[in-house]
Amino acid sequence: xxxxDRSTPVAALETDEEDTAFFLRRAEQAVEAAARATxxxxxxxxxxxxxxxxxxxxxxxxxx
Length: 64
Prior knowledge:
This protein is mainly α. The protein contains 2 helices and no strands. The longest helix is centred in the middle third of the chain and has 20 residues, at 17-36.
């Protein structure tokens, strides 16, 4: 039987610079999508996703 250790939150896991760059790029794309959106709910959803991507990128910065 395969078991997983779920004691460490995903945001706390370290990752490499490529992953951080990916989340920053996706945040920027979400802001651009919000600027193009015409429906208020779509604008809000894109900005919300942008914030999530920024949080992920911030949580994955290497510890100094």
